[in-house]
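Worked example 4.2. Below are the chains of a multi-component assembly; read each line carefully before continuing.
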Amino acid sequence: MNKKRQPGDTHEIKMHVWLEKDGGVYFGQGRYDLLMKIEELGSLKLAAEAMGISYRGAWGKIKKTEEIIGEKLIEKESNKEGYKLTVFGKKFMDEFNSLHSDILEFAVKRSSEMMSRIL
Amino acid sequence: MNKKRQPGDTHEIKMHVWLEKDGGVYFGQGRYDLLMKIEELGSLKLAAEAMGISYRGAWGKIKKTEEIIGEKLIEKESNKEGYKLTVFGKKFMDEFNSLHSDILEFAVKRSSEMMSRIL
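Applying the procedure described above to all two chains together yields the following structure tokens:
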């Protein structure tokens, strides 16, 4: 029991955050990653494959989120196969990313203060 | 697509937070709940059962946490069977609870601000 915290110890706080409405998840890290993959690959089919989920499952998740927030997140590429993020979709992703970063920054500060005090 | 956010809509942010050292989880909601059950039931065996995990698994988790933080979290009741939280164990639980509350409070404010702005 002599493992008191030393400078250089890598104690870290980790977190997941997600959004719910009426008890149902409608956005979190999984959907964030799926939408990033759609933007990167230009295809819902390839994005679903890359995430190891079915096309139907990926489609269902995105439609549920769009329904709840009342905005489209993805749209067909004009004159092409495939999908891309809508302007709102990009904004929503940026907002979630910024929300996540701000909470994590707060959590890191708050937990460092706690660990310095008690460990 | 006419489900724009209304007053009274129950959009909520949810989160899990946990602590890691060198990439290994050593404390989170599961261990918090397990320790609460030990304090409530005065028994590691009954607490493990209540959590649906094995005695050995529960013991291993607590020993790992104690090893990493360098303090005992539970101790034998004097002259009795069973376990209770140590003074440090209670303090650590209070600190984690307070850490969790503060982060959640920040997350709720930050996400409300985001939702009011974009939904």
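Take a moment to check your reading of the output against the notes. Chain B touches chain A through 42 residues (CB under 8 Å). The helical segments of chain B are 29-41, 44-51, 55-69, 87-118.
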